[in-house]
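Intended use. Records like the one below are meant for learning the mapping from a protein sequence to its folded structure. Do not use them to infer anything beyond what is encoded.
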Amino acid sequence: MTQIPSKDEILAWISDNPTQTSKRDIARAFGIKGAARIDLKRVLKELEAEGHLEKRRKSYRDPNRLPPVTVLEVTPGPDGDLFARPLEWEGEGAAPVIIVLPRSGDPALGEGDRILARLTKVEGGEPDYEARPIRRIGTNPQRILGVFRATGEGGRIKPVEKGSDKEWQVAPGATDGARDGELVEAETAGPKNRLGLPSARIVARLGDPSAPRAVSLIAIHEHGIPDAFPDAVIAEADRARPAPRKGREDLRDLALVTIDPEDARDRDDACWAGPDPDPANKGGHILWVAIADVAYYVRPGSALDREAKKRGNSTYFPDRVVPMLPDRLSGDLCSLHEGVERAAVAVRMVLNAEGQKIAHDFHRITMKSVASLCYREVQEAMDGRPNDKTAPLLEDVLGPLYAAYEALKIARAERQPLELDLPERQIVLSDEGKVSSVAFKERLDAHRLIEEFMVLANVAAAETLVAKRQPQLFRVHEEPAPEKLDALREVAGAAGFGLAKGQVLHTRQLNRLLAQAAGTDEAELINMSTLRSMTQAYYNPENFGHFGLALQRYAHFTSPIRRYADLIVHRALITAHGWGDDGLSPEDIEDLEATAKAISDSERRSMMAERDTTDRYLASYLSERIGNEMGGRISGIARFGIFVKLDETGADGLVPIRDIGREYFHHDPEAQTLTGADSGLTITLGQRVTVRLAEAVPVTGGLLLELLELEGESLPKGGGQRGRGQSPRRRVASGRKKAAKVARKVKRSRR
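Structure written out for the chain above:
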């Protein structure tokens, strides 16, 4: 039985370890696990009730000792020294004496200033603490990413944020040696100067903003994506060694293959299929999906684990990837390379002839991939053009994989997941990093095969953990909100299609609508509108189903190299099967809800960074075509203008409301229309337009367009003021400042 420490031992630990005072830290320090944590919680509550401890959020502290970071009020001493008093002191007797030790370059402090400071206990005499200022309270430095413009006195910074018209003044001593035109990172440094501009100081020089590979770097900094691993994380990864075979099933003789993009940076899934020899399952298939055993290398509470959790996922850009795990793991030990022994977690699934999964079980294995293949060469092999690598695999490996996929297509047709048809565009870069072309991503049967296998493996993971009553993270996609569906019905009705009302919504009804529109001029409009009606998927410890995939239980299991959610599911499977001590920790379970929110947020952060990078690349690509006329389709409507998706590149640009005709336009947000007050002209989603490219700013990704034709017709002149103001009689402000404000709204609305 675990021995609970005495109250004196707990108080001594908290005193000696002021930064490790959560219940979790205390439990780990004294080796307290399982049910014994309940007794620890009781002792901590008793100490709190007796006044020995104070609970703050999820940590405890000695009220007679200041926390390592706290808020202070500055009180200058008689000899020019700076002292401070803690704003929150609940200990016995007088507050401790604190001396403030600013560093060179810290802003000047005066009496009454409040600062957030890091404290160090001084043993044996006054002062009691030394304080290093972190920042003034109320003046948290705002981080700025922008282009430095040198002037006679210091310089100015123009931010890279799309549509921003704000500038910052940089004093001569705060430039960090930045050169004119350099991309810099800065932080606000005080009140406005005599020119009326806020001040900033440069903290990092990032090079030429027009350099092709600076595009993703801007997004990394702008969105705060961690892109440098701490030394402790790298050291931990470098110490890792291949997982031993002991305790694992040996499946090295199973002809598993990986199928990935040609430029794959990691290979975390492999598959094998064959006919089911069971005569009771005539025409059935056996399907194995093996996933890299990342959980063996990334243990709960380790430096690797903390960093992976902070990142949440890998972030992919056209020219680079910001990985969740260091390359020693993501590109080596956890990558299922051809001909190399690797540790994996595998699921064996039994399918009937109609592609229904009738059984499955999980295994912790050692495997050896027989081939690392790419989608194109697999597809070409199946289309009768095998190469030297795929020809020997065609009959015994690739053929059975496609046979299992054909069965899964039958089950998919029965299940009816949402079948959106929105081709994805791919930015192709030259060797120098410039955009050479914008093309549609290929959608081959080889892609669909792997997708179906991975979906089925994810379902199996969720079902197993539910059956074993094991806490886990579900991938949740809730059904659309009623108001979103009403908007979709209006769009569909205006286009001549119907979406039934007054019944429980299923994906098959939406698929019926999409099928009606297929092949018509309104197909893209209906697909875009259907996509906009969907909620955003997220992670949650509770299961609310996956509407888009038409699945009751769904979890992410197949990509633990690049998604923290999958790592949690792997740990849950390890715990559920009793495979080892590297499963879910009590802390993992306790923090599931917070983890789900954190990784859902980091996923959205990555999506925004990836999208902003695409916008900047497209703006760079189009910057040489200013003045050109282009075709497109209206993809969004707001009170400040219309969004147009250009046909050739898929880039989104804005036509400001002030540039649409010479009349006042009424905005109907529910119907998503603009209606001219004089002409009655109605502008709505999906309409064909001809526009002229007026502005393309690579550093921000902003595109401004001029509307020339709507559905092949020139715009009516109208009789009122141009665009939309507060009323038809009120003139709408014009000029670049107004355009900048509009563009800022664009960015906010799109997020």
